Amino acid sequence: MTRIECHQLAPRVGELAANQHLALAAIRSSASAGVDVIVLPELVTSGYVFSSAAEAAQLAVGRDDPMFTSWAEAAGDSLVIAGFAERAGDGLLYNSAVALDGTGIRAVYRKIHLWDSEKLVFTPGGDAPPILDTRHGRIGILICYDLEFPELTRAVALAGADLIAAPTNWPLTERPAGERAAEVLNCMVTARVNHLAIACCDRTGTERGQRWTAGTTIIDQDGWPVATADDAGVAGAELDLLRSRDKTLTPLCDAFGDRRPELYARIFPLQH
Description:
By secondary structure, this protein is of the alpha/beta class. It has helices spanning 16-32, 53-59, 66-75, 150-158, 182-194, 261-267; strands spanning 2-7, 37-39, 79-87, 93-101, 104-110, 131-134, 137-141, 163-167, 197-201, 206-207, 210-211, 217-219, 225-228, 234-239, 248-250, 253-254.
């Protein structure tokens, strides 16, 4: 079984040092408890609601920032996935997620699908989401709005991910009383149709007038939520990630084996 924890934190835009230490404390807490996979929110180091691209640039860090060294030391045998504002060598800014453990940075993913005003600040990523082979299983990484594109989530599943770890910042929107957030419902469906686990780590609080959904949820391979954030902001669950590799739905049905991609291509040749 793989122990997963998502920390629903409340970073403050502009408070780089405080946010870094907030994330470090969360990593230390989970790693010391023997958690295997630790997920933190999108842009946890910088905050989200930037007043300008210039402000975002001031809060962005490179992959060689000492912060990541301290996080890796705290992570030990745990795998950490956390969002950050990345300053690339060419000066471009990316909404990124780092995956690291005690050996250092394992991968950096740059968000492909930018939401709303993110397009005024960041450059969209152009590389495939990483899928890391770890002792915990195959961990794929997406960020927030990426989850809304079934072409991408299906591709990650087909590439062999056992778990999608997704740092998110979900703006609070109206919904009918008693209903889950639409973003959570989308992830439940995504988990079900691909038969893989998903860990969505949202943030909480209000930032420059923007309220957040606080929708952190860990979802199993059947599409059912198994954990949400407690009063301390932590969602924790144990999952058998190897179940994600069995796509059998019934003795005669297989979620991937029953696909007809050659037929889809013939029926809809111009659809991309």
